[in-house]
Amino acid sequence: MNQPEKSTHVDEASYIPSADVSHIRRKWLDLSYASLSPTQKLDIYLPDKGKGPFPVILHIHGGAFEIGDKGDIQVQPYFKALSHGYAVVSVNYRLSGEAVFPAGLQDIKASIRWLRANGKTYHLDGERIAACGSSAGGNYAAMVCLTASVAEFDDPRLGNIEYPCHVQAAVDMFGPTDFLKMDVQLEENGFGSGGHGEADSPESKYLGAKITDVPLKVVLANPMTYVHEHMPPILIQHGRLDTLVPVQQSMIFVEKLQKYVSHDRFEFDIIEGVGHADSLFETDENMNRVFAFLDKHLK
């Protein structure tokens, strides 16, 4: 976040600066939550005061499933939650260049299990966890929200399998929900094709094959596939002028939610006049909106 609108996948894969964490007094960096890959690490940040246990915001970075890091500036807006009494945990996961779907999702679920297994050590409340992310991280946050009982997304090799991987809430900012519809939706909006259907697109790399050749795998990576009436509540936000992940990706997700779950299970904001990863998502006003949603469900 805090980056200019990106119109091509090449631009998306550019360098992302690191977040400034020097002002955070209580923190643990580069903790391993699993041992299958050196990527499987997380950072924990606590409020300056209080013994906890603190409710947890699990931040899942974006980056087209192929770039990004737990320590980059995408986590910065969530540091504002420390003054609201939240712990912030930022997690790394295997990117598409290392392992394809569902490896990254399995990693994030393993990190949640690790947090529950080690909550007392780090002053974390394992019964109050929210998954939050934007773009690819938004897809992951929605998937974590909806697939706690999907055994195919568990990997016992990652450890702590005796602990549950569910969350109590989720925040999905402009995450893709159906890869096969993205190019058509972008064209409908007058933005031209985004190239999502190409063999070298981020989505194809993520699934390990050209998405048009593996439609059933696309369904498995689609949060809408797993909507159920007892799902944790989710806040969805999307910019109307998103030229990378079209706003319809969230709109069709919400249409599915409206059909199958009660209205207290989801909230949806379309941010007018803004595009992908716009800085308006990071303003105090919008982050307070996010924290108010989390307060409602975690406090």
Write a structural description.
- The protein has an eight-stranded mixed sheet, sandwiched between helices.
- The protein has a single domain (9-298), classed as Alpha/Beta hydrolase fold, catalytic domain (Rossmann fold, 3-Layer(aba) Sandwich).
- It contains eight helices and eight strands.
- With 299 residues, the protein is α/β, with parallel strands linked by helices.
Please estimate the helix content: 25-40%
Which H/E pattern describes the elements?
HEEEEHEHEHHHEHEH
> In which order are the strands of the major sheet placed?
1-2-4-3-5-6-7-8
Shape: globular
Average residue-wise pLDDT: 95
Count of domain modules: 1
CATH superfamily heading: Alpha/Beta hydrolase fold, catalytic domain
CA radius of gyration: 18 Å
CATH secondary-structure class: Alpha Beta
CATH topology: Rossmann fold
* SS field, number of helical segments: 8
Which regions have little confidence, pLDDT < 50, spanning 5+ residues? 1-13
Terminal CA distance: 26 Å
* Content of β-strand: 15-25%
Going by helix content, strand content and strand pairing, the class is: alpha/beta
Number of strands: 8
Just name the CATH architecture.
Answer: 3-Layer(aba) Sandwich
Question: What's the topology here?
Answer:
Elements: H1 9-12, E1 26-32, E2 41-46, E3 54-60, E4 87-91, H2 103-117, E5 124-134, H3 136-146, E6 169-173, H4 182-188, H5 202-207, H6 215-220, E7 234-239, H7 248-260, E8 266-271, H8 284-298
Parallel strand pairs: 3-4, 3-5, 5-6, 6-7, 7-8
Antiparallel strand pairs: 1-2, 2-4
